[in-house]
Amino acid sequence: MRFIFLAALLFTTLFSSEIKLTKTQANYIAKKVWQNEGAGLDKYLVHWNDGEDFASVGIGHFIWFSKGHTERFREVFPMVVAFMEKKGAKMPGWLNSKTALPWKSKTEFYAAKKAKSKKYTELFAFLKSTMSYQAEFMAQRLSQALPQMLESMDDIKREALVKKRFYEVMQNKDGSINERGLYVLLDYTNFKGEGTLKSERYKGQGWGLLQVLEHMDPKEKNKTKAFAESAKAMLSRRIKNSPPARGEERWRKGWNVRLNTYWK
């Protein structure tokens, strides 16, 4: 599978500034990520997964909490909205980066979805019309991932290893951007996070971008394959460490299918 971008990424020094995507690039990435997250189906654009206490919205299934809810996972949707506010995107009058999820429970959410309530309908239309903006947000988040990971470590050797492997996935041997590698890093960061939050761990072990980079097989020459295999191992560890009540085993197959797109 080839990941074809019609124009080069616009940056001077890699990650010295925000990654800029062209509209074509943003639309392409949006479709790829949305196929991963929701099979490209509208019914999953505003969703609430079984076993979770929060909604997952948009192409990246960005986490969104109801008012007063706290969780170990990073709440990302307010970050997406804040990004769109800066971009001047048109959004529902009731929505801004400080707005909590309007529905307090999964039952309440699905009742609003079934009834096609005003807020649900407006939220769906907003997310449907801003897919490219959502992809641009994901690129911005990736821009910040490497420095965030390095700042979270206090071991020089670990920092050097993570930086080295990040670039090995992102770049070709000649230093140019590996387009598949860009997709891999961008998708996984938004799929399972940077791996820097201590709360995003089970039994003290994380599963984010940081942990995947650290556990890549240095003997595997295909770096996107090495990344995918490491990600499978980290998510397998997550499933093993997860609270039984969450039933995370049910996600293994779908997660592995997604990770296989990273190199097959």
Model description:
The protein contains ten helices and three strands. The protein is mainly alpha-helical. The protein folds into two domains: 136 residues, no CATH class; 113 residues. It has a three-stranded antiparallel sheet. The longest helix is centred in the middle third of the chain and has 21 residues.
- How are strands sequenced across the largest beta sheet? 1-2-3
What's the shape?
globular
Q: What is the share of helical residues?
A: 40-55%
Give helix and strand order, one letter per element, not per position. Answer: HEEEHHHHHHHHH
Mean pLDDT: 89
| Strand portion | under 5%
Largest sheet: 3 strands, antiparallel
What class, by secondary structure content? mainly alpha
Model regions low in confidence, pLDDT < 50 over at least 5 residues: 1-17
- Give the number of DSSP strands: 3
Number of helices: 10
Over all CA atoms, what is the radius of gyration?
A: 18 Å
Distance between the termini: 7 Å
What is the multimeric organization of the chains shown? single chain
